[in-house]
Write a structure and sequence with these properties.
By secondary structure, this protein is an alpha+beta fold. It contains three helices and four strands, in the order E-H-E-H-E-E-H. Helix 1 links the parallel strand 1 and strand 2.
């Protein structure tokens, strides 16, 4: 699901029925730094290659192809990435 106004480069890899994924989504939605912005969400279970890569790491947040954090949102790491 890619909203047309998605912030370039910010991608959340997730899977359905994952409480950590739901928690990271909620945390992202609450952040001031993302106010008015969205991100691309990619369900890893739709692609065998992504399952192999992220199976035990979801949720995983990436910015411009670099991992920001996984399992739990690291707000400072995200702010640092977005500031550059």
């Amino acid at each position: 699901m890619e909203p047309p106004e998605a912030r370039p480069g910010l991608v959340l890899y997730y899977r359905e029925n994952c409480h950590l994924c739901d928690s990271m989504r909620r945390d992202l939605a609450r952040l001031d730094v993302l106010a008015g912005s969205t991100w691309l969400e990619v369900d890893i279970d739709r692609d065998p290659g992504l399952i192999r890569r992220f199976d035990t790491l979801v949720p995983a947040l990436f910015f411009d192809g670099r991992e920001v954090c996984h399992h739990f949102l690291d707000q400072q790491a995200l702010r640092d990435c977005l500031a550059t």
